[in-house]
Write a structure and sequence with these properties.
CATH topology: TerB-like
Number of strands: 0
Strand content: under 5%
Number of domains: 1
Shape: globular
Number of helices: 8
Length: 176
């Protein structure tokens, strides 16, 4: 038994309910929206927070980009987008170890190929919001692309549009 469970602090669900608990919490905040659409937006926002948090810090620029992307994808106003992104970030901080794959898999089940490619582009947009894509962020996006069922060529095609932000390609020393 873990100490968190013993203290009654282990709130992470187990079993079948664990697959969608994060998505349910975010979607519940979207009362009045079609349930399927709310679940889709919830999963989309959570996966964005997964990349933003890959370096253990979600910057203000990454948050603003996530909010803009959620507004565009869902047709939300600013207040709704802020709410969804804040819940997604909180869920990611609390349950990232157990929920990352599950939520991404749920998104993949709901999404078309075009939706998956849109998400892939959005992941690079979030990670480059601070003008730099760290190797950890790039690796996380690659993992997500694979979990979405996208092939490596899809990943490289989108990544190439963000090449100038890849930290691994930036040089520290000036050319002689």
């Amino acid at each position: 038994m873990s100490i968190l469970r013993w203290l009654g602090l282990n709130q992470a669900p187990s079993g079948p309910a664990a697959e969608t608990e994060t998505v349910r919490k975010i979607a519940a905040a979207l009362d009045g929206m079609d349930e399927a659409e709310a679940r889709f937006v919830a999963a989309f926002a959570y996966v964005l927070s997964r990349v933003a948090g890959a370096d253990m810090n979600i910057s203000a620029a990454e948050t603003a980009t996530m909010e803009r992307l959620v507004r565009e994808k869902a047709g939300f106003g600013e207040a709704e987008a802020v709410l969804v992104v804040q819940i997604a970030k909180a869920q990611h901080r609390l349950f990232s170890g157990s929920e990352n794959f599950l939520v991404t898999r749920e998104f993949a089940r709901m999404a078309t190929r075009e939706d998956k490619m849109t998400l892939l582009d959005a992941l690079f947009a979030v990670s480059s919001a601070d003008q730099s894509i760290l190797q950890r962020e790039d690796a996380e996006i690659g993992k997500i692309a694979s979990e979405l069922g996208l092939d490596h060529g899809d990943f490289i095609a989108v990544k190439s549009r963000y090449r100038q932000y890849l930290e691994v390609l930036k040089r520290d020393d000036p050319a002689p």
